[in-house]
Amino acid sequence: MSLLSVRDLCVKFAMRDQNVTALNGISFDLDRGERLGIVGESGAGKSITGFAILNLLSKPGYIAGGKISFDGEEITQMDDKTLRHLRGNRIAMIFQDPMVTLNPVLTIGQQMVETLKAHRRISRADAEKISVMKLREVYIPAPEERLRQYPHELSGGMRQRIIIAMALLLDPQLIIADEPTTALDVTIQADIMELLLELCQSNKVSLILITHDLGVVSQMTERTLVMYAGRIIEAGKTREIINDPQHPYTQGLINALPQQTRPGERLQQIPGNMPGIASIPKGCAFHPRCQYAVEVCRTKVPDIVNLGPVEVACHEVQRMNVAEVLA
Amino acid sequence: MFAYLVKRFFQAIAVMFVISLISFAIQDNLGDPLRELVGQSVSEEVRQQLRDELGLNDSFLKQYGRFAWNALHGDLGTSYFFKEPALTVILKKLPATLELVFGATLIIIGLSIPLGVYTAIRPNSLATRVIMGLSIIGISIPVFLTAILMIFLFAVELRMLPSYGRGDLVHLFGYWSTNFGSWDGLKHIFMPSLALASIMLPLFIRLIRSEMMETLESEYVKYAYAKGIAPRRIWFVHALKNTLLPVITVGGVQIGTMVAYTILTETVFQWPGMGFMFLEAVNRVDTPLIVAYLIVVGFIFVVTNTIVDLIYGLVNPTINLARMS
Amino acid sequence: MNSIAMDAPLTRWQRFKKSNLVYDFRRNPVAIVSFTIFLVIVLASVFAGLIAPFDPYDPRQLDIMNSELPPVWQSGGDDLFLFGTDAQGRDLWSAILYGTRISLIIGICAVALQAFIGISIGLVAGYVGGRTDNLLMRIADVQLSFSTLMVAIIFLAVSQAMFGTETFNKYALFMLVAVIGIAEWPQYARTVRATVLAEKKKEYVDAARVLGFGPLRIMLRHILPNSISPIFVISTVQVANAIISEASLSFLGLGMPVSQPSLGSLISSGFDYIFSGSWWITAIPGIILVVLVLVINLLGDWLRDVLNPKLYKG
Predict the structure, then answer these.
(1) CB contact under 8 A, B223 and A87
(2) Which of A5, A212, B285, C180 is spaced 20 to 30 A from B210 at the CA atom?
(3) What residue of B is the nearest CA neighbor of C284?
(4) What are the pLDDT digits (tens) for A200-219?
(5) Sheet of A206-211: strands edge to edge?
(6) C161 interfacial to chain B (CB closer than 8 Å)
(7) Handedness of CA B286, B287, B289, B290 (dihedral sign)
(8) pTM of structure
(9) ipTM of this model?
């Protein structure tokens, strides 16, 4: 049985005169110890997916339908107390910007100890010992001193390491990392990613890595979901998706990588912008930007179909696949 | 930390200097000390002689210098009306005003924090709507009107509380006389304190509420929820401290306003404090007393502001180290 | 080429009617009621000359025999005097009408003055920046910490003592406007400065500069219109505060004299009489004052909520 099973997840935002859909029919599975990437541009709904799993959506967002099953328990049906038991304990989150994630008026020690004390009966001294141990695991020098320090005394990279340590405090089964390196210096990004990879592997923790960076995803994850305008449009083994993307959007993303362009050539961009939540086109949301779009793309939302190594939601791809099979 | 202290200290001195300058300028131009001393029926010659003796014909700077020197030694002139040193008169009235301010502050802190926090946590409850409604009405009623209303309700109609004066006082340490020592004293101080608090209370409730609501939207609060921390702890440990920091700053600024409101409140309740004394001094054109009041109030103001700044510097962890590094 | 049909451009008034502001106003009962009451009060005070049955400034119309008559609905009341009379026999209703007019004039003029000074300083400080900005903001900070009321009390008290009561009363209106106007400019300055700093970074400012527009023109015609929203919001609160300040000052005897009373002085004149039972001299002007300030505050709150660029209104 998979650790996490999401079926038909629907998230909406209750705006003044209407409800807009942010996530539409998201479904995926995650096994124990597996590392999954969720990729897409800003606004695609990746972060929302991450927050929805913990039912942490800020108003006016709410889960409008679907199931989220974690280790056999149904998250959408949980009451607050059970949810709290889950958060930080069996599912931990890493937020995007370490500069604002930590409370500026509390010491690192206070913020780590409280996490432990929230879920275990444990003395402060013991909690501090565990904290120091975890800080060592993320290679923070002089960990005991850090406990007494305030967040603003530390660099961005150090703060993110501490946050990773905090995520591991209670030995969770799943870590959801929402763009964990976007706000950091490029030079630090690689370090943090390596650290995260190492820890997930050694502690056998499942990871959902939410990012817009395909390079990161190719290094860190075993499987990937590509999201666009609130839907999954391609899913499968990361290697397959990177090497042989099927969906026009994914192809566009790969082609847009600077590594794909020879020096002196123009960078290849996908024309247009991703539509805002309130103005998603009918049919396939990508059709206005897609060079292969045909009539059916304008009217019918493509289903996500299993095509062997990957699953793709695209009329053309499905048509071509059928043609191949028949041929 | 030290550099911060020094800087604030010099700032305080600078402000006091400006206040004393203005006060002296007022004294110089207001009223005729000679008239108070010797009356009308003295010849012009004798007048001029007296002016020379009193140093009233000296240059502005010289007179100011004398004024400042005296002030630093505790001599702020002699009240025309009371025929006593102005400082003595003020110090006699000081406990009354300070206790009034103290009572009001107790009410404000004691009520605004719980109410502010509650209205932030439960923004849509009936109680919140009631509290916010009362707040806006409270802001719209000037201090003196609230005072009058209270007097009318509690003193005239219901006859539960006295409508003027300090009542029975308990004397401490030979100097201080307190209202908090006797039941009658408490009955007397209740309404004035409440009236004084009535303008600031809604302000603070709204301030705490809006700061708290903003803090509750911050990333670190969301993160605390993601860690599974209990809501109680999130409200009172994570959010409250961050909320109160800017409130301390605003509170410091409101102290100046509070002083002005004591004048109004004391007038309505005939409370024998500094504010009432000041107003009477104005009506009698008792210049030395007016000037002495300005200096004393300026001093209290500067001292309290500096203390508030210090408290803020101590409480806010990000400030201290910025100074040290 | 496609022929694209274009709608005729809407006039300013039409755009306003369709705007978010009007939409929200229509659906908000509190805003509608507040605005109506405010309008009624303003109109009543503007047309006080037509509505008031008596002229409260005319000593010949006063008869001491009429003093302290209760309002018409109480026993002992006289049909001539709707809200009764004060200690001098003046019709309270007329006095209130004229008094409200004075309170409103002082409130609005004082705020106009504050706004003028504050916006000018804010524009300059924000646009010029550097040491000028530092200096101006320092001064603003210091001024902010001295409460307006305190400064006003001192200034007016000293003026009254220096010039004597008669001269003082002649110029009371102007002095009140001046004091309240000058004391509160920092609020405007700060807000405008913040907007200027934000707008300065935007491209249209660079564009204007490149086109050769002088700083004054850029400030006035380009940056200022973008800071109108916060200015409006502050102004409502400031008018309410100015009215309250003036009332407090008049109550202390440092504002409008009893011969030319504002609401504050009316309340003050009636204070001593509440103990002897003539509650209406203080209470009725008091109620009007509170209602006036309340509706202004409510409108200000509503305006703040509506003009706040938050996309969520759940």
Answers:
(1) no
(2) C180
(3) B145
(4) 888 889 999 999 888 889 88
(5) A91-94, A174-178, A206-211, A35-39, A223-228, A231-237, A310-312, A305-306
(6) yes
(7) positive
(8) 0.82
(9) 0.88
